[in-house]
Structure formats: C-alpha cells, structure tokens
Task: structure prediction
Amino acid sequence: MDVKGGVRRFFEASPPLTLLALAWIAFMVIVAFGADFLAPYSFTALDLRARLHPPVFMGGKWAHALGSDELGRDVLSRLVMSIRLSLLIAFFGTMIAAAFGTAMGFVAAHFRGKVEAVILMLIDFQASMPFLIIALAVLAFFGNNLVLFVMLMGLNSWERYARIARGLTLSANEQGYAAAVRQLGASNLRVYGLHVLPNIASTLIVSMTITFPETILLESGLSFLGLGVQPPLTSLGNMVGYGREYLTRAPWIMLSPAAVIVLSTLSISIVGDWLRDRLDPTLR
Amino acid sequence: MTALLEVSNLARTYDVRRGRWPFARLATLHAVDGVSFELPAGRTLGLVGESGCGKTTTAKLVLGLLPASGGEVRVGGEALPAAHSPHWRALRRRMQMVYQDPLGALDRRLSVGRQVMEPLVIHGAGSTAERRDKALAMLDAVGLAQHHFDRFPHELSGGQRQRIVLARALILDPQLLVCDEPISALDVSIQAQVVNLLLALQQKLGLAYLFISHDLRMVRQVSHEVAVMYLGRIVEQGDPDRLFATPAHPYTQALVSAIPTHGRARKRRIVLPGEPPNPVDRPAGCAFHPRCPHAVERCRIETPALRLLADGRRAACHLAEQIA
Result:
C-alpha cells in the first residue's frame, strides 16, 4: 500500500514522459563522454569495399549496425562523435549566452541611464536581426574554426537572458529584497551574487532549456549549409547535410542523426517544462 | 544636546516630461520640498499624509538611499555621507529601515536565520557561532521561537515576517529605525501586536523611530511628535494629543475628521473637494488653497511658512489662529 502510494507520488512528481526525456538526455551525455569507447571504428576510417551498406533494421549486417556512408565510413561511429561535438557546441554556446546575457542584464539594471540605453539598443538590434544572417556574415568574414563557432553560438539568444535578468533585477532593486539587503550596507557582489542571482536562477535555467535545442538546431542548420563544423570533424547537422545527397539511395545516413536531433531537442524542451514547475518556489 | 537626527530644508526634485512625446517640455516635480525636523534619541516622530505626499521619499532621503537635491541630513551631528561609500556603510549600523511589505523585503530563498544574521556577516561582526547566538536572541526579542530559525519566509504569517524584518534591522543595535508604513500591509489584529512590539523595543533599547504611516490612530499611539505632510511639505507639526484634539491647519482638520470614531460624539466630517494637485503643478501661494474651505486672497499669493504657534505647535497656515 505504502509502496504503491510512493510509486504514485513519484510518477505525479515526475511524469513518465519527463522520465523518458531525462533518460534520453542522460543517455546522450553518456554517449558524449564515452564516445571514444563506444565508437566501433574511427569516425574517419574508410572502408571502400563496404560503401553504402544498409543498417541492421534494413537488412544489413552487424558489422555496420547503422549502415555505412558513401565512403564506407561507419555511420554509428560518426553518429557517436557527432553527438559529442554537437552537445559540446550547444552546451558551451548556451552557457556563454546565459553568462554574457545575465551579466549584461545586471549591468543595465545596476547603472540605468545611458549604459542601460546602449544595452537595450544592442538587445533590440540582436532581436531584430535573424541570427542565421549574422552567423553567415561572421563565418564568411573570419573563416571558420571551432572556437569561433562556439563563441558565435554563444552570441545567439544572449539578449533573452539580458532582458530577463534586467527586468527581474529592476523589480528586486526597486522595492524588494535586493533594496533591503543593499540598505543593510551589502556590496554589489553580495547583492547580485548571493541574492538576485539565486532568485532569478530558475527563470534563467528554464530559458536555457529553450536555448539549448535552438543552439543544436542552429548548429545543425549552419553545418547543413556547409558553414558550421568543417570536415573531417563531424556534427549532427553536418551528417544530415552530407547525407542529403544520398537521400534516395541511402536514407539511413541522414536518418539517424536527424532522429537524434529531434529526440534530443524534444527531450530538453520537455525537461524544461518540468523544471519550470519544480523550480518555482511558490509551488513548493 | 544635538538631536540624533537633524533634517534641515531637505528637498528632492525629479525632472519629468509633460506628456508622452519625446520632445515634451520638461518640468520639475518637487517630491519633497523644504522639510525640516529633529528627532532626539529614544523618541518617535510620526510622519503622516496621504499617498504621494513625499513620506517615503523623505524616509529614503533620511537614510541616504536617495541623493537629496537640497538641504541636509545630520546623524548625531555629522552630515550624511554619500550613498554606498564606506562611511555610509558604517553608518548602517546606526540607522536601519523597516518595510511596508515584509515578504517583498525578505529573500524567499534564504532561511530566516541566515537573513537575520546577514547584517552581521555584511559588517563582519563576530564569529559564526556568535552570530548564530545573537540571531537566536534577536528572534526571541521580537517574539519568535527558536524553530523559526530554519524556516523560510513564505512559510510564516505576515506578522511573523514583519518580526523577522524587525529582527534583521535590530541585530546591529541601531539607534534609529525608519519605519515606512510598517503595519499597513498587516491584518488589524496583527497591527496592534507589531505596534506593541515596537513600543516595547523602544522602551528596552532606547530606539528612535521615524514612523511613517497614514493610519492616524496608530501614529497617535506611538509618536512623541507628529508631522503632517501635504505635497512634499510639512504643514503642521507638534504634540500628537494637541495636534489631533485641536488641529490648527485646515488639512489636518480634514484628516482628523476622517478618523472613524465610535459613540455619538462624532463630529461633522470635513470632506475636501477635489483631488490632491499634481506635484508638478504646485498651486501658487499655499499649496492647499484650492481645496481649503477657509482660503482667502492672501493664500493664493503668499506661501505660508511653518511658524510657531502660541501653544508650541508649528503650522504653515496664514489663518491658523483664526481657524483653530
């Protein structure tokens, strides 16, 4: 009876769909960390005698469980490495966006006046330009390398964090806990680091779960266009992009990375929804 | 002897736009306009007036949370240092604030104990164990139990939250507490408890209060002196019993007549015509004249100064003697 009640409470607190999403994310993280051990072949190893082998579920052999591409490279191995790179880019991109955006929001709310006006203008500028165009321009001018690419992903959507952080900080500063603590004589570091940030963190974390899939999709889109991750490195979007040419003859080349993109972004969105409910202090 | 708090000719103006257009004419809003008072140690000054008359702005100016546009605030004979300077931080130990909305003033992610100890941490006073002991003692002093130490603000009632705000303000042993509408967000039954607590703490610790409220009866109960504000200026100031029994300024008369009374001794209520004017468009002469039932020609031209009346009160009215 008690066990049953416990099980029910557990599933009420975390519905099955959320559990599946969490499990998928955990699986992706494990794959990303264990990529070197999980990949059966090197992701660049050619096997020209085994070109365009179908995957197991389409009548292929276990030697290439997810098939092989036009150069005989193992799709599973490439997929594993792609997951690692795509998650890395999305993770650091999101982190950079969140850190930079939140800092800008704090600066705007703290200094007000001209500083705030300039930051708000930057925010509006960023929000009004399609980021894909900005990314294309930057990559075209500066060439492409991984560090620049990750930084660029970080530039995407910083304005959202800046807006959230600024708005919430303003209200806290005006008539609330931040004003009270500042009145006690606390330093700015203390006010923002110890009081404002923990209080707005839940909102920021939830928007990170929205940005994260967007970054994956943006990376995929740019790689698909040939401007993202450059061969021989491989990413999910990159695989989809090159697999497109064999869509009719060997759909499995782009099928598995596409499925991973869809499942990962969906999972993170579901977890984000769930987190929003969990992190709201008034609901606890 | 110098008073604990001396405020002379304090003013705060804001530049505002008339209308919504970006090139609209600029105007000056006088939120607080030449306010002066003294508050000796261990006494209470009540500051009353309707919403928007500059009470809260005065409180913020006194604490140095807003820079003054004119005039001076002196604490213990020393001029108030610039906000957020090291000297200003040190002064926080002597003057603290109590807020209208206790839930808003508390950080809902930190436990009660950590928040009460925070002023000690900020000012680097005592070791961790000493801070804890002091916080527990302070919780006891404001009527909370030891087990409240690990609770969170949203788990407590409104009165308990206001007690936490008080405990946090008092833990540095200040001499002056600025209470900005400390009871107006509380239930009537809890208001009395908090007011009694404030009075008991004053007795015990010798605190001075600047007590801001629009509840005249509460102000009368706690104050040694009352100042009535209208449109950023003090219009009448003096002993609470005398001021409420025989108000000298027509605005005070209207305020006092609006206090609900019981029994048949109810006097006629004075209903003021119109709204309080926009502080941007301060009427010339006496700011109160458009709504004043006694206004004469002189009131439209000459601004009355706050002057001493025969019974030791001060009022800013040309006709104070005739009216009272």
Observations:
- The CA atoms of residues 93 and 150 of chain A lie 6 Å apart.
- Chain A has one domain: 10-283.
- The mean pLDDT of chain A is 83.
